[in-house]
Amino acid sequence: MKLAILKTLKNLPHYIESSYPQRKESALYARKIKPQQGSINWEQESSIIIYRKYKAFHGFFDLYTFWKNGKIIVLELATPDDVEKANVSSLVKSHVQPGFCYFHKKRKILFVKCQDNWCGILSIKIPVRGKISAQDFYNGFISKEEPNKCYFHANKNIEN
């Protein structure tokens, strides 16, 4: 990487002299990213799409979901490899809907069912409490709920 940068800098005058403007008709423009795109829709988005949103938006916009009408900001996700190694589908025996939360005590990862698979959450931010680990969220919130009420939602107005 450093060698490529040094080579480019060394030949910079040549590159500037041989440059030409891009034709407007062949220019491609990316759509502007909006903060609302950070909303996670567990029912409609695959685990890969959610992970890509996390990687793309991290540092610019929050990735968020809702728990009991409260906004939860996802700060850190487990890699798809870590999710695959956990083999959560074999641990959760019953069929669950997207948004269902399962805490893996050994790995200390909060897994959430997506459209096609599972996402692994390592840490979150709750507006009133600040940053907490997946284990702290499990201990403070999920463990006190009946399993059929342990769901994240895409919008604020859904009761679990």
UniProtKB/TrEMBL annotation:
Residue stretches making up the Formyl transferase C-terminal domain: 32-141
Coiled-coil annotated spans: none
Concerning InterPro entries, the annotation shows: Formyl_trans_C, Formyl_transferase-like_C_sf
One matching Pfam family is Formyl_trans_C
Q: Name one GO molecular function term.
A: methionyl-tRNA formyltransferase activity
A cellular component term from Gene Ontology for this protein is: mitochondrion
Q: What is this protein called?
A: Methionyl-tRNA formyltransferase, mitochondrial
Query: Which species?
Result: Nephila pilipes (Giant wood spider)
Gene coding for it: MTFMT
